[in-house]
Amino acid sequence: MSDGLITGPKPSEAIELVLAENSPRQRIVAGLSWNQNDEKASAGYVRTNIGNSIGVILRNPDMLGYFVKNPDMMSQKDDDDATRETDDPSFDLDLLCYGFDEDGHCKDYVTPNAYNAIDKSEKIYHSGDDMDGVGDLDDEQIHIELKDIDDHYNHFFFVIESDCMHHIEAIDEPHIRIADAMNNENILNIRIDQLPKSNQYALVVCQIFKKDDKWYLQNISEFTEERQNWTEYLKKYL
Questions:
Q1: Cα 52 from Cα 114, distance rounded (Å)
Q2: Cα separation of 144 and 30, whole Å?
């Protein structure tokens, strides 16, 4: 389906994930992009929080290589994941992923926060926190390697949150895409701000789920007024 707003399955529709046969990891990528707010630059607002990243490295020295490859992870807002930065004038969106087992228990999650950038299996990982949407490509990405992923994962949900004063409709040209990372071909692509009820602050994008040893993608595209306790809220879609 392609109607200018959505390319791929329409809301509530599910399709089988057919990935490139020569993909060694059967890896999918969720890419979130938007444009910066030129009128209200956030350079004076954003605060670096290198101490958080150093703390992660001290507890887990193996993370040093990750931060070297992803230097943006060394700069983050000094905020609380549970609350939105309602005073931030920049355009700032966050991409998150939650993994559930077949019984509906959340097994792990990945967020832009350095503490939660990689799941325990190291098969799900975040590109790092982008706080202003500068750049031409995806501003934030989450990768999932489906090949040989832990058996307890049966459902993955992708969620978008506003981490600024603006609701999603006010953000300049936000897009979310789910693609085959091997060939970068989009399976689902959504112009988020043009969806109904987009004047809210969070969006449940879609779920990737396993059935009869095959993986499927279901478009959800449902907004919530604010960020939720996602480990509980997402159970309604299981």
A1: 7
A2: 9
- Domains identified in the chain and CATH numbers: 6-237 (2.60.60.30)
Smallest CA-to-CA distance from 208 within 143, 132, 151, 157 is with 157
- 133 contacts 34 by C-beta, under 8 angstroms: yes
CA 171, CA 163: separation in Å to the nearest integer? 11
User: How is residue 123 written in tokens?
Assistant: 């098969």
CA 4 to chain centre: 22
- Residue 59's SS3 state is helix
pTM of the predicted model as reported, rounded to 2 decimal places: 0.82
SS3 (DSSP) at 32: strand
Cα(53)–Cα(44) distance, integer angstroms = 21
177 φψ region: left (φ > 0), alpha (ψ -120 to 50), beta (else): beta
Interatomic CA distance for residues 238 and 231, integer angstroms: 12
Per-residue model confidence as pLDDT tens digits over 111-161: 999 889 999 999 999 999 888 888 778 999 999 999 999 999 999 999 999
